[in-house]
Design goal:
Elements: E1 27-28, H1 40-50, H2 66-76, E2 83-86, H3 88-100, E3 107-110, H4 116-124, E4 128-131, E5 151-154, H5 166-175, E6 181-184, E7 205-210, E8 223-227, H6 229-239, H7 249-260, H8 262-285, E9 289-290, E10 297-301, H9 307-316, E11 319-320, E12 333-336, H10 340-356
Parallel strand pairs: 1-11, 3-4, 5-6, 6-7
Antiparallel strand pairs: 2-8, 7-8, 9-10, 10-12
Helix pairs in contact: 1-7, 2-7, 3-4, 3-6, 8-10
Bound molecules: pyridoxal-5'-phosphate.
Catalytic activity: L-histidinol phosphate + 2-oxoglutarate = 3-(imidazol-4-yl)-2-oxopropyl phosphate + L-glutamate
EC number: 2.6.1.9
Keywords: Amino-acid biosynthesis, Aminotransferase, Histidine biosynthesis, Pyridoxal phosphate, Transferase
Length: 357
């Protein structure tokens, strides 16, 4: 705290990202990255954008990221006016909270969800109310059919991995015609059904996706929102009042290549899904309760072993998973689905730890 800080800065509670340790030979299953790396076409596109002598970097990038927006629009059968892009979906979400969710009535989101949402509410002064998940950690649409200033949640939810069926999302949209409903689909490509097909029917629907997970580009920071052009216009106004060039030249070129390489995308997401199912079986056999997941992570607890202690013991074996201190989920661990070998190493380590106590 310093006399030089602007008013309100001392009251902010910043988001705490998952650890990015520099240790070598680590099995890193804590921040839901994709173990397979991006499409080879992405690397080629970056080389091409860089040019022979990196001279291209002296010029500003396209402020509207038109080629990237067009690739997204084409994939979803939409128009460029239906697409907003940002520096990771975190930035897209920041624009959403500022541009679409700040109203007199509180917005609604689940009690257990992506922990950046309360941070944005604090930053932008957005009123909010949390809605408890059911006892089985599911979103109950009926709980969201009440006056609100907007609704946001991830589908599949994080960190639970549980998915809400698209019929239920439609019921939510139809029941909230006066509110923006934001579906954060960071993990949708690992087995859920995107709500993008409902955009033409519901002008209050905004779908947010990222290239960090299913397209393995967490390091380049690429995210987007799709929805009715009036919603997108609000996001563009906020973006152009803050940073005209959130996506650099290399990221834009990579984004186009990643979206266009459907074959690689399908192959790698299938591999993650297969490993998730195998990991679920092995952890269940070890006595863990594993919530049904449609994401690239599983959320697990053991009836006889403390989650924080298990996380610490795994860390001693160079395996990092995520533990949240939130009371309701303090006995859970969130485990990213790694390569098959990493998943086997994790379940072997847990097997040894459980046997040893
Ligand atoms: C639910 C959810 N939304 C959004 C994000 C942000 O992803 P990115 O900023 O990498 O696009 C994450 C990251 O873990 C997430 O879990």
């Amino acid at each position: 705290m310093s006399q030089f800080w602007s008013a309100g800065v001392a009251d902010l509670t910043p988001y705490v990202p998952g650890e990015q340790p520099q240790m070598q030979r680590l099995i890193k299953l804590n921040t839901n990255e994709n173990p397979y790396g991006p499409s080879p076409r992405v690397v080629a596109a970056i080389r091409e954008a860089l040019g022979a002598d990196a001279d291209a970097l002296k010029l500003y990038p396209d402020p509207d990221a038109r080629r990237f927006k067009q690739a997204i629009a084409t994939r979803f059968g939409l128009d460029v006016a239906n697409v907003h892009v940002g520096n990771g979906s975190d930035e897209v979400l920041a624009n959403v909270f500022q541009g679409l969710l700040k109203h007199d009535k509180p917005i609604l989101y689940p009690d257990i969800t992506y922990s950046f949402y309360p941070v944005y509410c604090g930053l932008y002064g957005v009123a909010f109310e949390t809605v408890p998940l059911t006892d089985t950690f599911e979103i109950a649409v009926d709980d969201y059919l009440k006056p609100n200033g907007g609704i946001i949640f991830p589908n599949p939810n994080a960190p639970t991995g549980r998915v809400l069926a698209s019929g239920e999302i439609e019921r939510l949209l139809a029941g909230n015609p006066g509110s923006v409903v934001v579906i954060d689909e960071a993990y949708i490509d690992f087995g859920g059904e995107t709500a993008a097909g409902l955009i033409a029917k519901y002008p209050n629907l905004l779908v947010v996706q990222t290239l960090s997970k299913s397209r393995s580009l967490a390091g380049l920071r690429l995210g987007f929102a799709i929805g009715h052009k009036d919603l997108i216009e609000a996001l563009e106004r906020v973006k152009n009042s803050f940073n005209s060039y959130p996506l650099d030249r290399l990221a834009q070129a990579a984004g186009v290549a990643a979206i266009e390489d459907e074959a690689y995308f399908d192959e790698t997401r299938r591999a993650v899904i297969e490993s998730r199912e195998a990991l679920t079986s092995r952890l269940t056999a070890l006595g863990f309760e594993v919530l049904p997941s449609k994401a690239n992570f599983v959320f697990v607890r053991h009836p006889a072993h403390d989650a924080a202690q298990l996380a610490a013991a795994l860390r001693e074996r160079s395996i990092i998973v995520r533990h949240f201190k939130h009371a309701r989920i303090a006995q859970f661990l969130r485990v990213t689905v790694g390569t098959e070998a990493e998943c086997v190493a994790l379940s072997d380590a847990l097997s040894a730890l459980l046997g040893a106590t």
